[in-house]
From TrEMBL:
Keywords: Cell membrane, Membrane, Transmembrane, Transmembrane helix, Transport. The chain crosses the membrane at residues 7-38, 50-70, 79-98, 104-125, 137-155, 175-194, 252-271, 291-313, 320-341, 347-373, 385-403, 415-435. GO terms for cellular component: plasma membrane. This is MFS transporter. PANTHER family: PROTON MYO-INOSITOL COTRANSPORTER. InterPro entries: MFS_dom, MFS_sugar_transport-like, MFS_trans_sf, Myo-inositol_Transporter, Sugar/inositol_transpt, Sugar_transporter_CS, XylE-like. Belongs to the major facilitator superfamily. Sugar transporter (TC 2.A.1.1) family. It is found in: Cell membrane. GO terms for molecular function: transmembrane transporter activity.
Amino acid sequence: MLEKRSMWYVILIAASAGVAGLLYGFDTAVISGAIGYLQDLYDLSPAMEGWVISCVMVGGVIGVAMSGFLSDRYGRKNIMIVSAVLFIISAIASAFATSVTMLVWARIIGGFGIGFASALSVTYISECAPPAIRGRLGSLYQLFTIFGICATFYINYGVANSGSYEWGMEVGWRWMLGYGVIPGIIFLILLVFVPESPRYLIQKGRDSEAFKTLSRINGDEIAKKETQEIKISIETEKNTSVKQLLKPGLRMAMGVGIFLALFNQVIGMNAVTYYGPDIFRRVGFENNTEFLATSIIGSVQVVFTIIAILLIDRLGRKKLMAIGSSLMAIFMVLIGSVFFFEPTNSGPLLVIFIAGFTASFCISMGPIPWIMIPEIFPNHIRGKAVGIATMFLWGANWAIGQFTPMLINNMGGAFTFWIFAVINVICFVFVMTIVPETKNKSLEEIAELWKPKNKNGKLSDEFQTDLAADSRG
């Protein structure tokens, strides 16, 4: 059991790293308020509208891909500091953009920062957190993401109500994007006071510094044990490569990790987040009430994400994802029906259905993939595997941002949301058939799940051959 002083220390450093979620949440939500003004100001086509929103994901994918290499060389903390600086620069450049091209480049720079932070925040937390509370501390990134989304929706609403539509088109959207300086500065200041990851310090031969941090978290006895375990893990990783993820015992784990990453994005939540005000305008919201409706959805996200954190270790990951994906499919059918039958007089009904979908997402496919993806891989290959899965997540995020306005424009709202309903049904099937339950299992027990067995319950010959080859290599 952690001492009270140690508990508060680890919560402090985990929360500081988790604030990276504010950057992701802000950027995800702020563009939904600005895009309507930008569309009129620059006469954007649906494809260009999608590009302005999704271009940040290009920087994000590259940032995620580079984060592992850079953090191993320069440290988790230092690269997260770089991510905060890049986000601040992006917010300032976006606010003063004089063309669509300049805005796109500013957002790509911000994407680099968010990509670095999203990959390293959870990694840093998992390397510092005691096993008993690792899951809850790891969920702080998602919680801060939702706080960032909700707060930004209200910021958009406040800015939209600060002047006429013409003012918003010339100046208001600049204030919306410029407010990104605030979460960037908060993240930067907090990082100054947190220690470097013990794992990185040991990797660089700075054992005494690592022991000091581990001792402050868990006490001297556990710190000694963890120091040795980290050293063994680092030695093991020297003989690992991405090719191992294609071998029996890890192929399935990699498949599940990619599945969780993809379905965190493609089930439709980001379509609502990115294009919420536009969606509500299509059913009669006006005079900035579309921003208020979007803010209500943001509040639902916060409430149900907190509920999810309380339920994850009680009900289990698999059960919550199954319940959530089935409910999301139902709500997507209902949302599509609103657009199909009476799109101009069903505003309150649409708010209820989207709120129901959002609540279902936030107790299932919202926070759980962020927790499970690091859980399902063995220590020696976790960093590489999580990086690959996160790249798929960002790629799917880009696709949703890019193609949603094109789908709505060409196929209509009804068929667009019905497509998302089908995707949620597929998600339910995959959760029920291939995703394991990791509730109350140690990381070692989870690793055992992937080892292929023969009819006698023993390790398969192919797996044992690969294992022997790896140990020799």
